[in-house]
Structures are given as structure tokens and as C-alpha cells.
Amino acid sequence: MTSNSPIIELEDLHLTLESAAGPVHILRGVNLRIEPGEAVGIVGPSGSGKSTLMAIMTGLEQASSGSVRIDGLDYSQEDEDGLARHRRRRIGILLQAFHLIPTMTALENVAVPLEFAGDAAPFDRAQEELESVGLDHRVEHYPAQLSGGEQQRVALARALAPNPKLLFADEPTGNLDQSTGAQIIDLMFDLHARRHTTLVLITHDPDLASRCDRVLHMADGRIYKASGALEPAAADRTEAAL
Question: What is the reported pTM?
């Protein structure tokens, strides 16, 4: 999984927001390097900066300072339209809330990002993706007709349909019972392994995070500890963030 060119590289990343009480430091000098095909878990208490870090890596939030380079793209050189195009082509996002369009069938929900990406046969591809998550018998059902686990399977199919290089998952089982959540996680890791997609998993659950190649621990806007296999360069950068 090692490479001379990391797919994610963050250097001295800061995010500070202004408030009536003064500046609020959300991220405080995060350094991170992730290699293509890695699965990396990010754990930490609420408010530690995990979800904000993901928002910056996906181009949905802008850092106050520091360098963000994702799959060779320097985010500082792109406008919002450029970041949106990059997101559509290279990045899949799976969230705790399913965010399915209620007036569209499962098939239509999965086809939407493919249509935006200019896929020549979006519904054929959507059908294949729903089959890959075990929902080929539910393609014409609307979200309200699906269980929570089925809705998250649709969301996973939608995230992976454009064949992204990166999959970001933020508490993907937060709205599911333990058994259903375990099934979704097994499916997500299986698809990650088969497609060699780089996976960044944000979770409160250390047991879930331990299934990743390595685990980063966040608190107070910093990565303060890393466990698992670290490349020397990545280890140096992580130490610099302490």
C-alpha cells in the first residue's frame, strides 16, 4: 500500500472561527499523510475536530491556513466549482444520516451522482452498484419503504457508484442498531478491499476503528497519537502535530 505519492497530504492545517467570545480554534496544526489503498480510522471525543477535518479533506470546508493536497490536487488552487468537480469524480462520502432523496427510488438515488459525472449509462451502473450491496430486489423502492440498513446500503452504493479513489465515512452506523451496523461495516470493508479504495473512517468506536490499517486519535483539534503501521514520513508528520 506504500507509495511515493500520498493520496492525502495535509501540512500544518489550522481552522479558526470567530465568535462573540473570541476566536475558536477547531484544528490546531494537523499533519497527515495517507497512502493509496489505506484504511485509516480517526477516533476522538465529540468536538475533537474529526468531522471538521473530513469536511476540509472533501473540500466542503476551507482551512484557515496550511496545505491540503488530495489525489494530487492542491485545494488552495481551486475554486468551489473545481472542488465540486473533484468531489464528484474522486470522492465518495458516507454519513450517519442517509441523505437519500425521498421522492426518488433506490435506483434513481444511486444514478443521480452518475448523471452529474456524465456517465453514459447511469441507470445500468446504478443497478450494478445496488446488486453489489445486496439490494437488486429493492431498486424500485422509495427510501420510506426501506429499513435503515437498506437505506444505508443505498447510500453506500451511491457513494461508490462513480468508482471514487477515496471513500470518507463519518459515523456510518450511528443511526443503525448494532447488528445492522455490523453488516454495513462488513460490507464497506469488503468493498474497500475489493476495489482498493482509500478509506477514511471517522468513528467514536475504537473497536470499529481497529479494523483499519492504522488509527489516528484526535483531541482538541490535534492528532495526538497514531497506532498501526505508519510510514516513516507519516510518523514524522504525526509527531510534528503533537
Answer: 0.88
